[in-house]
Write a structure and sequence with these properties.
Elements lengths: L2 H14 L1 H10 L5 H16 L6 H15 L2 H9 L1 H4 L3 H14 L2 H22 L1
Helix pairs in contact: 1-2, 1-3, 4-5, 4-7, 5-8, 7-8
Pfam families: CMD
EC number: 4.1.1.44
GO molecular function: 4-carboxymuconolactone decarboxylase activity
């Protein structure tokens, strides 16, 4: 395992949480292992591990891109990760307002719906 891959694994765990990463690894197969290696090294090791942009802001950028592109499963995953990155509900709202203007109201509308549901779930588990 390369140093970049190890760094990516640590960043992925710090951002998404051990439970998610462990579940992901348990359901992996020989077929998708090369893909997991790729995203762990490239996305998590090369991009998310850079210290130029703090995790909070990187998380907000990621949410905007995922919502703007309509990648709802990944949007939900990264919205839950805000518990670890420090992006607040207010930050998420601001991101989604930007999505409405720059990527379209229908995408933002759906993202707001998902965010309301997920943030409520997260609040319940914190209680």
């Amino acid at each position: 395992m390369s140093e970049r891959r190890k760094q990516g694994e640590a960043t992925r765990r710090r951002t998404l949480g051990d439970d998610h990463v462990n579940r992901s690894q348990q359901t992996g197969t020989d077929f998708d292992t090369p893909f997991v290696d790729l995203i762990t090294e490239a996305a998590w090791g090369h991009v998310w591990s850079r210290d130029t942009i703090p995790p909070r802001e990187r998380s907000m950028i990621t949410l905007a891109l995922l919502a703007g592109l309509g990648n709802w499963e990944e949007f939900a995953l990264h919205l839950r990760a805000t518990a670890n990155t420090g992006a607040s509900a207010e930050d998420i709202r601001e991101v989604l307002l930007h999505v409405a203007i720059y990527a379209g109201v229908p995408r933002a509308n759906h993202a707001f719906k998902l965010a309301r549901e997920i943030l409520a779930e997260m609040e319940e588990t914190d209680d």
